[in-house]
Amino acid sequence: MCDFLQSVLDKLELCCKDVVDHVFGALLLSRLFVFEFAVLELIPNDQAPTRVKEAGKQYHRRQRDQSPLRERERDKTFAFAAFSVTAMGIKGLTKLLADNAPSCMKEQKFESYFGRKIAVDASMSIYQFLIVVGRTGTEMLTNEAGEVTSHLQGMFNRTIRLLEAGIKPVYVFDGKPPELKRQELAKRYSKRADATADLTGAIEAGNKEDIEKYSKRTVKVTKQHNDDCKRLLRLMGVPVVEATSEAEAQCAALCKSGKVYGVASEDMDSLTFGAPKFLRHLMDPSSRKIPVMEFEVAKILEELQLTMDQFIDLCILSGCDYCDSIRGIGGQTALKLIRQHGSIETILENLNKERYQIPEEWPYNEARKLFKEPDVITDEEQLDIKWTSPDEEGIVQFLVNENGFNIDRVTKAIEKIKTAKNKSSQGRLESFFKPVANSSVPAKRKEIPESTTKGAANKKTKGAGGRKKK
C-alpha cells in the first residue's frame, strides 16, 4: 500500500499548499489510503512538488509507528474516487476542524449505532454505488435490457448491512436544487463533459489507468437511479423522504427535530445546515474496518468559540456550493477573520481590497439565508417515518424478474431483512427513558449544592445485479 500511495504522489508533480493540506488532512482523519486520481482536478499548474512527497513520507512514518490497522487490513481499505478529496460541500472543513476543534470529532465503531435512527443522504450514497459497485473500467452491472443496476445492488446490500447492525435508516432524496446552486451544477456539468472527452481519448489509446480515472468522473445520478432506489427501499420497508430541495438540509432538519440521531453523508455542509450530529463513512463499503467519524456541532461552536451564525459565515468564506469564495482566503484565514471581525459584512469593510479580490455581485447573504432558512418539510403528515415488513413478492419481482438478480441470493437477503428488523425492534437501553431533544448549542449544566453531591455515590450480504455493460 505504501508503494501504491508513493506512485500516486509521484504523479502529483505540481500541487499547491492548500490542496496538499486538504488531501492529507482527509487521509489522516479517515485512514483512507487510496484516493484514486480525482484529486488532479483540483491542482493548479504551479508550486511545490517536493512538499507533496514529504507529506506522504511523514504520513507513512506515523502510520507505521502507530499501527492503527493491521497491514493486511490496510491493503483491503479503499476510498471512492472524488469523495474524500474533491471539493464537495464546504472546502477544507474537515482539515480546519481537525486543526482547531479536534474534540468535536470522534471515531465510532459501525456497531455502536445499534438502535439509532439515522438520516442518510441518498443521492450521495447512490453516487458511491455507481462509481464502485461492479465497475471495471467502463464496464458496469446491467440487466438484460442494458440498464445499469449497480445502484440497486449497492443500495440493497448496504441497507441490509445497516439493518443487520440494528441501525434504522431514513433515506432522504434531493428535490429541486436552489437557484443559487445553478453555477456550481454548471461547473460539474462542464467537468463531466471534459471527462467524457478525455475518456474517449483514453479508450482510443488503450490506456487502462486513464480509462478507469475518467470513467468515474463521468458518473451522474439520474432521476431513474433515484426512482429505482426509492421503489426498492419502499419494498424493503425502509422509510423514504423526498426533500423539497437539498437532501442535506432536510436531513439536518430531521436531526434538529429529534426524529433521527444523526445525519450520514460525506457532504460536510450538513454541519452548516446545523445537523447536531454528523456521521462520515457510515455508508462506506468498508465501514466495519474504517471507523465512522462522528462530528458534533455543539462542540464545534464551543471549540472554535463561534456562534452558529459565525460558523455559517466561516463556511461561506471557506467556499461552499452556493457562491464563489474570495480568492486567497482559505479556511484558516477565514477563521481568523471571523474571530477578529465577527461577520462577513464587517470583514468586507476592513479587508485589504488590493490583496483580496471580492467577486462581483457576491451573493453571500443569499447563501447565508439558504443555510439558516432552508426549504425543508416540517409537516408531520409528510414525514410519516415508519419501518415496515418487507414486501417479499415485490422485491423478487423488481430485483429478480425485472433486473436479473439471483433468486437464491435475493431470497436469503429477504430473510436477513426480516431477522434484522426483529433484532432492531429491541431498541437501545436509553430508549426506555424519556428522550432528550437534540440541540445545536451546548447544554447548560444544572448546579447541584455541595451538600447534595457529598452524599451521592454480521455477516455480509451478496447480491448479483446482472451482467457487465461496456
Automatic annotation (TrEMBL):
Free-text cofactor note: Binds 2 magnesium ions per subunit. They probably participate in the reaction catalyzed by the enzyme. May bind an additional third magnesium ion after substrate binding.
Domain 5'-3' exonuclease: 116-386
Domain XPG N-terminal, residue spans: 88-195
InterPro entries per record: 5-3_exonuclease, Flap_endonuc, HhH2, XPG-I_dom, XPG/Rad2, XPG_CS, XPG_DNA_repair_N
Compartments in which it is found: Nucleus, Nucleolus; Nucleus, Nucleoplasm; Mitochondrion
Stated role: Structure-specific nuclease with 5'-flap endonuclease and 5'-3' exonuclease activities involved in DNA replication and repair. During DNA replication, cleaves the 5'-overhanging flap structure that is generated by displacement synthesis when DNA polymerase encounters the 5'-end of a downstream Okazaki fragment. It enters the flap from the 5'-end and then tracks to cleave the flap base, leaving a nick for ligation. Also involved in the long patch base excision repair (LP-BER) pathway, by cleaving within the apurinic/apyrimidinic (AP) site-terminated flap.
Full protein name: Flap endonuclease 1
Native organism: Arabidopsis thaliana x Arabidopsis arenosa
